[in-house]
Amino acid sequence: MQDVANALGVSLSTVSLALSGNDVVAPATRARVRDEANRLGYVYNRSAANLRTRSRDVVGLVVPDITNPFAAEAALGLQDALMPDGRMVALANTRERVDTQTSIVQALLEQRIAGLVLIPALDTSAADLALLRRSDTPVILMNRNVSESQLPFLGTDDERVIRLAVDHLRDVHHVTSAAYFGGLQAAGPQKARKAHFRSLMQQYGIQDVAIWDVPSAPNALAAYEAAREILRTAPAPAALVCHSDSIAIGVLRALNEAHVDPSECSVIGIDGIVDGVVTVPSLTTIDVFPSDMGAMAGRLLFTQSANQPASGPLVTPALRIRESCGCASD
Amino acid sequence: MQDVANALGVSLSTVSLALSGNDVVAPATRARVRDEANRLGYVYNRSAANLRTRSRDVVGLVVPDITNPFAAEAALGLQDALMPDGRMVALANTRERVDTQTSIVQALLEQRIAGLVLIPALDTSAADLALLRRSDTPVILMNRNVSESQLPFLGTDDERVIRLAVDHLRDVHHVTSAAYFGGLQAAGPQKARKAHFRSLMQQYGIQDVAIWDVPSAPNALAAYEAAREILRTAPAPAALVCHSDSIAIGVLRALNEAHVDPSECSVIGIDGIVDGVVTVPSLTTIDVFPSDMGAMAGRLLFTQSANQPASGPLVTPALRIRESCGCASD
DNA sequence: CTGTTAGCGCGTTCAC
DNA sequence: GTGAACGCGCTAACAG
Known about the structure:
The structure is a homodimer.
Chain A: H1 2-8, H2 12-19, H3 27-39, H4 46-53, E1 58-63, H5 69-82, E2 88-93, H6 98-110, E3 115-118, H7 130-134, E4 139-142, E5 153-156, H8 158-171, E6 177-181, H9 190-204, E7 207-208, H10 220-233, E8 239-242, H11 245-257, E9 266-271, E10 284-287, H12 290-303, E11 314-315, E12 318-320
Parallel strand pairs in A: 1-2, 1-3, 3-4, 4-5, 5-11, 6-7, 6-8, 8-9, 9-10
Antiparallel strand pairs in A: 10-12
Helix pairs in contact in A: 1-2, 1-3, 2-3, 5-12, 8-9, 10-11
Chain A binds a DNA duplex through helix 2 and helix 4.
């Protein structure tokens, strides 16, 4: 900056004012400054500016695994919500490990991020998130709640998700048995969905097939392997509700290998990833609008005060009927 | 920092030294400082430190679309290579738009990133990347080269990729016709692969089916739609080599709808994404090790001088035989 | 081992 | 309109 000031014979502050587009400096000088600046190859040092103004412009996105299409689509939505305001996103994967999650969060706080969108690793406890409570950085938990953490949460209406799936299975496919598959056994966010599922099964008099209640990492490959093992020892139930679309994709593959098609076993995923239309069979799913969720998270970070109710806004899920539930073969 | 210094009755610099783990300060005091620091809820301001030390610790990763599994897996690999050194990654999606790419790159440079890993948008020209040449920030182009840009490139051996695919099609499937599908028509990185494909077709006397030579966005959904249109008017060739695994997944779906199975039309993807084992049919592909590529990019950024040959290291591709080429049904 | 001083690159008064 | 001075939070020289 001093260089361009010297080159033009003006003061350093004139340059600063000119570059920030302040109208206190003459339009003519402003143009001259800009031109000289990039003639000299000068690039603005935004982090120095941020230090001085105590402003921040990068928001952290920490997810278990960006390879999961849900996380990727949410990342896209988040960026869309942030870029118009000149913000960027810093990405980090925890691989479902709480310890790397805490060290990542720590690093992000040290970087003075403007906000944090977090899909917590599976066995995250409220204590693990304590440092975030005290911090003045706006945080929002996405898609997986840690109820006792007292942190704002943006997710979906789990009860409604389950009801949409189970009602469809009962009303159009008349299933007599079903199971909920996916997620780790450990206490965590899927406990809620599983509980809703069980209660609905009981209420509708549908058999809840217990053998599918096993832990499995939340990705397609692990789900495939787990499902294959189960199918080796037991026939498929009439329906499988999967904790995520990734998991459903693995299940679809296992079912295909076992030669059971959608008319014999309906599978319904949860998420609504875009590539669900392109699987074989295409994926019937409960859409929770991953991209919108990411965008909403980005907006919520800055539109609200940080001290809000623990259970924040919910996105309304929608049933997307495709082939994997057997609707195409009926 | 001053607060914790006062609280302990020591000097500010003692605190600084203690927190950075410098052995010039007594281990006992070091511990006392650390304890008092986080008792007071103090968090280190790394960006202020970076300003002073002229060091940088976040590297930019800009990709067309993080939703593409190749990009996501590369991101994971990149993070793995970076985190041990205490570095983080800033992610940005260009959606294949050159203008948003340049504005993103500009923003990243203003943030004073430590380095940049870039998968260029499809019609990126050397001129679009000129500002990166002048910058003192290490840059590495990944997976798509912009030959005239003079920037270091990390990719795969395109000729070998094509040869692995075509040799397999000829030697084990004895195909008499084939096509290369995917990517935009525009001048760009896939020109090389397409050229190698054509020359090999000619050399082997295999018919190159021209109707598949149409532009399509590089994602599964767009590929599916394009392939479906083509299949409406023409029978499938004996083989389809797809520019990426994502594209292959879309093609698989289109083929399935047209009731042509792998024994009639072999499809081979390029990338080696992990979910390729879980598609139906599972995806035969040329593996270019996306995750390793990301990790290599991270290491290369800092192990080499920036002024290196335009065409950097290549990863050696490998054929992964699965079902989609028809090997399972033979 | 500790305290003092200066300065990283920038934004902001407040005089001129 | 312009320039001088100060400070953001931290590290790096020193001298004690």
